[in-house]
Amino acid sequence: MNDIELTDKQKQKIEAEFEKNPDLKHITQVVFGNNSLDGRSKEGRCVRAFLITKSLDFTTTLAPKAEEVDLTSEQKQFLMGNNVERGMNALEVARLTFKDREIQPLSQQHRTVMEYLRRYRPEIVDDNEMLTTDKWLSPKSLSKSIKKVNEWAGQNFDEVTIQTKQKKMCEKLLFYLKSPRFVHFINQYSTIADRDLFESEFVRTVWDKPDLTNDELNLYITVCTNYVRQKHIQQRIDKLNTMLNDTDNERDLTLRLTELIKATSEELNQCEKRIESLTKDLNGSRQARLKARGEQNGSIAALVEAFQEKEERERMILMAEMQNKLIEDEADRLESMDEYKARILGISKKEIL
After folding, report:
1. Residues ≥6 apart with Cβ < 8 Å to 74
2. Both 271 and 150 in a single domain?
3. pLDDT tens profile 49-64
């Protein structure tokens, strides 16, 4: 089944290593002398099967799956009551629901509360907090690429009638979306809103640039991460301003909030400057490269044109020479006629030529 048969020596080594360390990954690497192997490899599955036959309780490095959390009737009643209002943070709601201040973001309790509110009280849930546990996968078909361009870049392409130039751009976008760096960053975002913002800005800025270098592609990804960061900084400023309006003129708190708003505004300003600087550098470097390429193409076109002109001149000269040769041959034929006929015609070779 695993296409690997353990030798007696390997079996003995498995048992000996199990006594030292029961971790499946460790045993597999030691027995086969390969540190890149783990329990999911063919070798790992083979070791696993042998340990099971020996009734040896091995361990794995795979994190245990989080247990499902069921809401009690009391907790559901709390979530449906007036204590939960629009604008409340879902994490804070989860901590109040379970009466546990130690609940962490993206924990099973947090996800359960989010899902319950999304289903029964969607007006409460902030779209920016809607979580996703699904792994983002890059599209593989041209139709999905075209759909993203239409959705994020405001185009209206049809897969059947799309022009060749735009089709090639959409095909190149598929390649960009498979970039390991892009996939890594988009899967770092846990909310749907952040993923959508990151992806939309990326598609909007690169879909019509099929000539990007790897360095330029990485810089565009950096720009898009800054767009997401910019959104979060602005949200913090909005919350701080709301808190400042609700301080009831408490001097110490007001001063503290004012300082935080100032510092956060400066952070926002720096983020916006990074976006502006990166965008300017990207546009400048690409335009310079395209200009150089255009001049090179222009030089090549001029050479082709000159060659074509030279070729045309030579062809016309050859045709003229062939025509003169035909006339000369005809004159020779006429001159070879009987002298009497030639006199009647009243022509000579010299006259013809």
Report:
1. none
2. yes
3. 888 888 888 887 655 5
